[in-house]
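Internal QA ticket QA-208
Title: Verify multi-chain structure generation after dependency bump
Assignee: T.L.

Test input:
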Amino acid sequence: RKEVEQDPGPFNVPEGATVAFNCTYSNSASQSFFWYRQDCRKEPKLLMSVYSSGNEDGRFTAQLNRASQYISLLIRDSKLSDSATYLCVLYNQGGKLIFGQGTELSVKP
Amino acid sequence: NAGVTQTPKFQVLKTGQSMTLQCAQDMNHNSMYWYRQDPGMGLRLIYYSASEGTTDKGEVPNGYNVSRLNKREFSLRLESAAPSQTSVYFCASSDVAGYEQYFGPGTRLTVT
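Actual output:
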């Protein structure tokens, strides 16, 4: 079983829609969680960290459910510029990040 | 600010050739990483250096070597390139190991 699993998509949504991605992880000892964004043929960039209490940054909300071992990312009022691949990332011990394969989002006019 | 820089941006090699991918960061970060990204596989860690003077294997180290030349620079060497090493290679750095990583623009390598 992969340490981090994501639905690769693509998720095709119209502008203004709300879309949510889930990501499951297998190691219950995972300590920290992140969402990264990767535009086509570009480098990944940190979108937001995910805290146990949940956190919001503008149109983006991230949540962590340790009991069920998943994290989620909710995007409200989708923009064309949100089209990208969203990578679920977790940190165990040993100084390494574990990356999911990513979920592709395409926002259409 | 330059952040993390990588050279070259593109490279085509023949099977058996060798080359070194260069990476440098100007953020005074302690930790540096090399990843490869293949379609459907996500980012996989090749090697990392938690601090200057140390290097450790990641998930897919076979066929690669690394050198942490100083705090700024971390190079990746392919001694005898194989078609299976065709990939996009990203270098990254972080201030604290395991936390937010900043990535370079990538090197697109094709081995024929």
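Spot checks passed. Chain B has a mean pLDDT of 94.
Status: verified.
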